[in-house]
Structure formats: structure tokens, C-alpha cells
């Protein structure tokens, strides 16, 4: 696994985040700084795993992964990890504020209890809403993506190697196979898709073609 180079030290990163939270949410409910430090430390461990297979030039230099707190995509991924860590540790005050900070700064709605996979990549994720679906490993999400339920409360289930391009929606009891791509400005509702497929257009008039180019390899080395 590649080493991870940080633009700020762990302690500086925790302090940087603390100051952001205090500025945006001065509600009088104190933040547990020890819990924040622990959640940040754990987030860095998860970032190292998450970034390791990413092939984008902004994520590695030689044999070293890179985390830059001033790279919005990377920082939004970091904030998700910290909020999820705080939630798993039972600190919902901290988890809520970090979730809201991510929403405030990047327009990204990923609730702290949502379980994203070990390896994922957010690409300019402004306006994306990632609901309580089942997410397979190696997930790529662009801007304006909506993952949610229908009135019956069913959420999608994704297999490994999924790419959701910009302004796409996938709602309800959708089950997608491995190596799945949802083309830009497309939508799916309550649909099952086999492995190795690209889906284009809007439900129920979708066009389904073979994913013969293994597009996930543009994002991750496997």
C-alpha cells in the first residue's frame, strides 16, 4: 500500500477542522476535542486505504498517495470519514456538525450513518445526495447524483465497480451488477441491471449497452 502524505499534520488538521466547526456552528453545545482528534486520526487511516488504488494525478506522486486539505474533492471525502467515525463512536453532536459542514462547503449530502465502501472517489460532487443504499466497493460519484428511496422505502443495491456520472438519479429497488455505469443525465427506478452494463437515458425508456471498455480502470488500479 502507498504511504499517505498530508498537507497538514494530524494535529494541525484536527485543529483546522475544529476552528471551522466552531465558526459555522456556534450553538453553545461544546465539541469533544478528544473525540474529534480520534475521529480525524481514524479518517486518515481510512483515507490511506481509500486513496491507495486511485490513479488520478491529484491523488498520488510516485509511490505516495497525497491528501491536500485544499482539494475540495479530497476534503469532502475526509469530512465524510470523520463524521462517520464520530457517529460510530457514539458522538452524534460531532457527527452532525461535520456532516453539515460537508453540506455547507461542498453541497454534498452524505449522512454520517451512510456506509460508503472502502474505496470510493468523489469527482466535483456538488449537489450530490447519497442515501442509505448498499454500496459495493470501487464507487465513483460525480456532481448532481441522487441516490434515494421511493415511497415504499426501498433503496438501491450496488455491486462492485460502479460509476455514476453527472446529474444521474437511481431510486428505489434497483439492483445493479458489477462494472455498472449510469450515463450522464440518466435515471433508473426499481430496475435490475446485469453485470458489465452502461445505462443511458431516463426510466422507463432506458438504453442498455455493454460496458466493454472497463471504464472503472480510468479511476482505480485493481
Descriptors:
222 residues; alpha/beta; UDP N-Acetylglucosamine Acyltransferase, domain 1; 4-stranded parallel β-sheet; 16 strands
Q: What is the topological layout?
A:
Blueprint: E1 3-6, H1 10-24, H2 33-51, E2 60-61, E3 64-67, H3 72-88, H4 92-106, E4 120-122, E5 129-130, E6 139-141, E7 146-148, E8 157-158, E9 162-164, E10 169-171, E11 175-176, E12 180-182, E13 187-189, E14 192-193, E15 197-200, E16 207-210
Summarize the amount of helix as a percent range: 25-40%
Unreliable stretches covering 5 or more consecutive residues: none
Number of domains: 2
Give a short account of the largest sheet. Answer: 6 strands, mixed
* Broad structural category: alpha/beta
Enumerate the strands of the largest sheet in spatial order, edge to edge or round the barrel.
4-6-9-12-15-16
Return Rg in Å.
18 Å
Discrete helix count: 4
Query: What is the typical, i.e. mean, pLDDT?
Result: 97
Order of helices and strands: EHHEEHHEEEEEEEEEEEEE
Strand content: 15-25%
Task: Give the CA-based shape.
Answer: globular
Beta-strand segment tally: 16
Tell me the distance between the termini: 12 Å
Task: Write a brief caption for the model.
The chain is an alpha/beta fold. The protein folds into two domains: 3-106, no CATH class; 120-218, 3 Solenoid (UDP N-Acetylglucosamine Acyltransferase, domain 1), CATH 2.160.10.10. Helix content is 30%, strand content 21%.
Amino acid at each position: 500500500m502507498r504511504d499517505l502524505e498530508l498537507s497538514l499534520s494530524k494535529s494541525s488538521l484536527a485543529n483546522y477542522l475544529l476552528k471551522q466547526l466552531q465558526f459555522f456552528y456556534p450553538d453553545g453545545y461544546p465539541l469533544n476535542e478528544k473525540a474529534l482528534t480520534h475521529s480525524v486520526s481514524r479518517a486518515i487511516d481510512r483515507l490511506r486505504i481509500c486513496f491507495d488504488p486511485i490513479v488520478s494525478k491529484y491523488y498520488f506522486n510516485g509511490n505516495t498517495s497525497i491528501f491536500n486539505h485544499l482539494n475540495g474533492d479530497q476534503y469532502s471525502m475526509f469530512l465524510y470519514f470523520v463524521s462517520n467515525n464520530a457517529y460510530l463512536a457514539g458522538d452524534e453532536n460531532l457527527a452532525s456538525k461535520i456532516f453539515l459542514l460537508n453540506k455547507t462547503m461542498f453541497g454534498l449530502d452524505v449522512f454520517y450513518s451512510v456506509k460508503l465502501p472502502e474505496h470510493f472517489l468523489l469527482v466535483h460532487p456538488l449537489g450530490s445526495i447519497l442515501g442509505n443504499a448498499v454500496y459495493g466497493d470501487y464507487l465513483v460519484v460525480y456532481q448532481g447524483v441522487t441516490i434515494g428511496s421511493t415511497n415504499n422505502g426501498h433503496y438501491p443495491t450496488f455491486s462492485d465497480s460502479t460509476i455514476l456520472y453527472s446529474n444521474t438519479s437511481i431510486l428505489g429497488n434497483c439492483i445493479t451488477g458489477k462494472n455498472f455505469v449510469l450515463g450522464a443525465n440518466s435515471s433508473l427506478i426499481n430496475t435490475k441491471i446485469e453485470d458489465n452494463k452502461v445505462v443511458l437515458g431516463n426510466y422507463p425508456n432506458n438504453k442498455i449497452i455493454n460496458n466493454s471498455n472497463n471504464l472503472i480502470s480510468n479511476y482505480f488500479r485493481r
